Amino acid sequence: MTEAAIDKENKEIAQQYKELLRISYQTLSDEDKKLIRKAFDTAVDAHSDQRRKSGEAYIFHPIAVAKIVASEIGLDATCIAAALLHDVVEDTKYTLEDIEEMFGKTVAKIVDGLTKISHLKKDKDVSLQAENFRKMLLTLNDDVRVIIIKIADRLHNMQTMDAMRADKQEKIASETLYIYAPLAHRIGLYNIKNDLEDLGLKYTEPDVYNDILTKIRESKEEQDRYISEFTKVIQNSLDQEGIEYEIKGRPKSIYSIRRKMKNQNVSFDEVYDKFAVRIIYKTHTANEKFLAWKIYSVVTDHFRPNPTRLRDWISSPKSTGYEALHITVMGPKGRWVEVQIRSERMNEIAEKGYAAHYKYKQGNEEDGLEEWVSRLQEALENPEGNAVDFVEQFKLNLYSKEIFVFTPQGDLKSLPKGATPLDFAFSIHTEIGYHTRGARVNGKLVPLSHVLNSGDQVEVITSEKARPNSNWLDYATTARARAKIKASLKEEKKMIAEEGKVILTRKLRAQKIPFNEKTVNELVVFFKLKTSQDLFYRVGMGIIDNIKLKEYAASRSNALVSFFKSKIKKSPKVEDIDRDEITVKYDQLVFGKEEDVLDYKLANCCNPIPGDSVFGFVTVSEGIKVHKKDCPNAIQLQSNFAYRIIQAKWKDSSQEEFKAVIKLQGIDNLGLVNDVTKEISNNMNVNIRNINFDSTDGVFTGKITVIVKNNTILKKLMEHLKKINGIDKVTRE
């Protein structure tokens, strides 16, 4: 580079630095400015020899990220310094220790978190990608500011991606749409979320993006005319009320227009709400709510509102802190217009998220972030299991719309749309969730699968004896509840497996077979299982009983079978035999609420395999056809032939539950019914479905329908019932 070019670049760098201080949202003290200057000088020194793909000096990137953090997200000097230094440890001679020594623990911790994220392997494999995201989200445990600066870093990368190869652009854009945009949404950074989505679309579907962009530009003039026509109608009334306000028209983002076109299967011209009108008013906090409704009243005096589209986020703000009143009214020329009513404070919160929220609270901004991150961490509490499921579940929680429900004391709780009483129970406290026996919604008993609506009052009924069962996973929708239920089921399975190990040792000794690794491996292969834990669990459940173990003992003494067994054992199928987990075997398909076993055929269009989410479709000539829920034909079948759809799911044979009727006879005495029900409820893995007792002239007869997992458990229960004082006969119907 020539000396003149270097000089020009240095001037530009100095200019950018001045702008960074000027546009900062927070008021910076002299101490803050010193910290930022020191970070700036360090970054300039560290990156002095580096250039970006576009050819410009690398230092422009950290400055741009710091500017986003300072003005668009509105964070403080610590975060601005960390943003300036975010690539220093990864790419240059500076170490983390240097940063800690120069800038203190907090900045070093944030820079370390950002470096960790950058070091995650970049791979196209989706499960590895999901694993990386999970690791990234777990850095939230260190400091939420890491994620916020990472979002700013990603936004600048997306804005300057033109010089990259097309395949790289597509990969980074897809990743942005997959995780960074939902994260920005969840933090309440709506402007950044829109930018990330639009830029994501620009590189994943450039033709669509450019087409919509052109159409928006073409229709801008007409749109401005429409907004001014709309504004004229209400301006007079607002002025008469003496309200200080400004009215802005805001076009919907390209991505949201694209989503509408896709979801509603309409063209650009048919998307009716391509823009919103925003009324931003000035007021003192005390008057804020009153004025919002006054403006609402003025707007609806002139334009008829759509009653189903009123959103009051002033009385119940979103969990991101967003407050506003949204109404959709019938504007001039018969067009629906969304009107957003916000005070200046609410508008800042909508644009800056948490930084503004806590500026107005005059509290410590960090406390606010801590409170938010503790909510977000609920989704991260179970770091085990499948990473893809985890990320999908996490995204579900990020994008979910909210409902507001009341506790019995009248406190307000926000939950994702589609939540059930079980989600509500776990959101109050894990222990309440674990011991949920039932729920009342608005005073009425409802099943645990009942979907809650905004405004419901929910009371959870608990019992010491209640505990999660595998059906709960069908009822719970939030990541927190599902993670807790899975953890509890896992723990219970582990306990049963430990019990099973003891039983197996005893039973093998009776057969004169040594209990050692070789025997366990042979048994796993013999019963076509995956892990030793599977074997112990199934022995503990009584699925592998004496008869089956005798079959194994007989096969052992047969030399020919032993030869084949040793051949099978060498196969790679059982390489995970030592894994300390109980795997799920999806080997039976059941239908409907009663989980009936019916004849079926697998659909050729989507070829479902055991474990897939599926549904049954009753065909005219071929009986039940089973389709995957995401089968290309699913939407059409479900909308046109809803009455022919039946629920279906794969079940693990060891989780299968069966109905059995036990008949009791005996001499009636005080407290007998209580003894019987107590005995059944104390018996693990047994539930009472139906109960009927009759007493005539001192003789007692009873019929009890119980749900058990297998015959062994039923036999054990019947033996226990026989021992109750007064019971003479226990038989199975």
From TrEMBL:
GO cellular component, one term: plasma membrane
One Pfam family per UniProt: ACT_4
Domain TGS, residue spans: 401-462
Pathway involvement of the protein, from the record: Purine metabolism
Superkingdom per UniProt: Bacteria
SMART domains: HDc (SM00471), RelA_SpoT (SM00954)
Domain spans labelled HD: 58-158
Gene3D superfamilies, alphabetized: 3.10.20.30, 3.30.70.260, Beta Polymerase, domain 2 (3.30.460.10), Hypothetical protein af1432 (1.10.3210.10)
Any Gene Ontology biological process: guanosine tetraphosphate metabolic process
InterPro entries, alphabetized: ACT-like_dom_sf, ACT_dom, Beta-grasp_dom_sf, HD/PDEase_dom, HD_domain, NT_sf, RelA/Spo_fam, RelA_SpoT
Similarity-based family: Belongs to the relA/spoT family.
Functional summary from the UniProt entry: In eubacteria ppGpp (guanosine 3'-diphosphate 5'-diphosphate) is a mediator of the stringent response that coordinates a variety of cellular activities in response to changes in nutritional abundance.
Protein's name according to its UniProt entry: RelA/SpoT family protein
Organism: Salinimicrobium marinum
Gene name linked to the record: relA
